[in-house]
Design goal:
The structure is a homotrimer of 343-residue chains.
Chain A: E1 18-20, E2 25-26, H1 29-38, H2 49-54, H3 64-79, E3 83-94, E4 103-115, E5 121-131, E6 137-148, H4 186-189, E7 203-205, E8 210-211, H5 214-223, H6 246-256, H7 258-261, E9 266-274, E10 284-296, E11 302-312, E12 331-342
Antiparallel strand pairs in A: 1-4, 2-4, 3-6, 3-9, 4-5, 5-6, 7-10, 8-10, 9-12, 10-11, 11-12
Helix pairs in contact in A: 1-5
């Protein structure tokens, strides 16, 4: 029996199974600094302890996507090592800020299984949760992946497809305890546009671009302890390219979106997301956003805006799909999320 | 009205105007470690808490240039986003050490304006200050940039050119509270040359070289939240090159200068500086210094030396300008600064 | 007299001489995060404060190899700046964990000298120790290097070759105070194989590969304040390549070995090591291990396993030398070490 982890195949998952993912991780100011070094992140709440305190938090939390990547990375060896494709996300919620000093671990529950008609692979739905050292759930999301079968002879399980919301509603979102935007400093935050200045249908071109290097995306992906071979090993593909972790594109696009969405201080919900095309070193990533929906929360001065965040390596802001509904070849990411804004 | 920041044009500046720059930043051991990873920095005072305590400080401060870059980075969106050229620095003073845990913000005052005779651009002089969470000024410097006019029809302002010292005198420098070099450990610091061993006119070849990669300068420049497009976006120039942030060259040259100036423990003043030629990935940076002037401070065992630090990508130590006074093509940086040494 | 450090030549070493190396270094969560960003490190004890506490430690220590690199880096300017070759390691022992906040310095004693028959160089054996801020030795190892003579006319010293153990025995190893694996969580650690599951002679293929970039190995090597020119300066070699610091390959191989040796939580001893062939950017590093020997310690639940760790850029697991005993050209590292495992 080999000592190394071959990963799980489709037939290895059981409906309702709880998977405790390995290698808990303590984060510090180091992860925080690296996040700012790898992405042009400038949102004030995750940049300054003083700004965060003025908004009612204990201090500046780790970027919400950094928390996501740490949790996601832990799930990779059990969920997606043999995945053919990362198909989607739904019902993601950030439930508590993650601070330097916190230790995160991850657990997943198998909530859906459906073998493909070819009998060679199947779709696995998991609900993954990140927990901190106090066993508090800080993040909760559903993702589904296509996984190869190890033994095609194993019979297909009864198909169970979980019912998933196309999008969370404002009521589903959880505002961090104490968050208060009533004396929000727009000057220090970098832009004067408040919740009321954004309208559904509005398209925002974030204008800046970043050309990606191999060293950068590998440093980032290792930082999240994501071990998928394709990100690191140039011998895995015929063309010698390393596939960039989709989460790297998410964080890059989110950071670029500062220019136009500087007051989108916290990520609250993940409604869905597609890694529309693979991203490689040398690509220059740009981003645009579309305002989808708005709502108010019960917290003082805290509004929520639902946004589509699109990362591209070219093309005009707003251009997403071709005539038959297929993503344009330069579209890398199509993300649907909720963020908290000062009203 | 677009939501993104178009930057300011020449006609947008008013004499005496105070600009509060956005996005305060809390630094930690993470920024400290990254500084050591990006530059071959080895000065003992910014490397070891124990060494710093033995010199009278609370603990090891962040490198003085790291503090400069954080403050400088905050000024970019308001001062140099539409700058055609970064023309000079003067009267820079480090007024208090920056420690992990400190939160920095920046403010600038417009102290000079002069439209160019072509009517298409002008020169803006600003005095920028970095403040910590206690509202204490930690850094203060003047810089001037050439900025494009957005609308050439706007009439020129009355020209005001601030009077700037060609160099600070020793009396202008501020020694960090408590600094005491009277029991300085030259062995741990790495070199035995003290203040008395340097003489004006002396040229020091720092001998080492570092070949720069795209990933490194982008990681550094993002770390300082400097957002100028030309550093990150390979599509901004015909040749696909990314222009390296001048501050990256400063820090690289300063770190290389350890070899010969290991006891130049703290940067005290910035008299002037020119980014003589653009620097690109692939360049191998070397450095040499010239001793310009010396003085003593009132602090125990603390002397000051004024140095010229030159970064090159080739050429002999001491070679700076051609016959008509133009910088040689391999000279990247000509910096005039004061440092504190043990006497 | 030049102000820069020319390094020591063979004739500059005296038997019994104590060398106090320069530039103490305080490590923080920043160094910890960078280690995880540069290597695919996932061992739970150096990843999670909670996991470390459950094993009886105060919190999660810095990776043992990071501690080694910091100490090693300090010795470079005095020991290997003019070294022609790094010949070997022996009797290395990690004596106490290094935690964020600790300050390390290094001292070496010259324990052997032997001039080569060509009269142009000689071999220097040193015993180097790393000490923390409490003057506690945290690491102790012997290494020997071939060093050029500065002046061939200086007569050869009496040859003294230290007696070195081919390998430490289990009794030589020092278990960190308080370490207790009796309630070890194999699920959180990532693999279920315990001490009893490994048998001498067993070969483990760690399966993963990482393609190395210039930016990464330079960032790592600078982080350890290792200043050897060949790692940074592309003009040092005819082919423009930068030689990768051997310690970078050690850490990469150790991190890759998680896959099959996830429970090798602490490095206890370094019996020997050879950098079999030079490593350059573009190489894809893989690793395999051979179980050499086993023993138990007095600490609760703590066993020791002696392992050979081999890093390669190709070739089959187990393939090490050719017919005449020479390392195969794709072998980069052959390391012999002891690690602590849960029994």
């Amino acid at each position: 029996m080999p000592k190394t982890n071959p990963g799980r195949f489709f037939e290895d998952y059981r409906l309702g199974e709880q998977i405790e993912h390995a290698v808990p991780r303590t984060v510090s100011g180091g992860e925080r600094a690296l996040y700012h070094a790898l992405y042009p992140a400038r949102h004030a709440l995750t940049s300054s302890d003083e700004f965060a305190r003025a908004c009612g938090l204990a201090r500046s939390p780790l970027d919400d996507w950094a928390a996501f990547h740490v949790v996601f990375g832990k799930t990779v060896p059990d969920i997606s090592l043999n995945a053919v494709a990362n198909l989607g996300y739904a019902q993601g919620r950030w439930l508590a800020p993650v601070y330097p000093g916190d230790t995160l671990r991850a657990v997943s529950e198998v909530i859906g299984l459906k073998e493909n008609s070819n009998g060679k692979s199947g779709i696995v739905w998991v609900r993954s949760r990140g927990l901190n050292q106090d066993e508090r759930v800080v993040l909760d999301y559903v993702r589904w992946v296509m996984v190869r079968k190890g033994d095609p002879a194993v019979p297909a399980p009864d198909p169970v497809i979980p019912e998933l919301k196309p999008a969370l509603s404002v009521e589903d979102l959880v505002v961090p305890e104490g968050l208060d935007f009533s004396s929000y400093d727009f000057g220090l935050a970098g832009e004067r546009h408040r919740w009321g200045d954004y309208e559904p249908g509005e398209i925002i071109d974030h204008t800046d671009g970043v050309t990606i290097e191999e060293a950068e995306h590998m440093i980032a992906t290792r930082l999240w302890q994501n071990t998928a071979k394709v990100h690191f090993d140039a011998t895995q593909r015929e063309d010698g390219k390393r596939l960039i972790y989709g989460g790297h594109v998410i964080s890059m696009a989110r950071a670029l979106s500062f220019n136009g969405l500087a007051n989108a201080q916290l990520i609250a919900g993940l409604n869905g997301g597609a890694h529309a095309n693979p991203c490689f070193a040398g690509d220059t990533i740009r981003a645009w956003s579309e305002v989808l929906e708005k709502g108010k929360t019960a917290a003082p001065g805290v509004g929520a805006i639902r946004l589509r965040l699109v990362a591209t390596r070219g093309g005009a802001p707003g251009a997403l799909r071709d005539g038959v509904g297929k993503y344009l070849p330069d579209v890398l990411l199509d993300l649907d999320y909720w963020a908290f804004f000062p009203i």
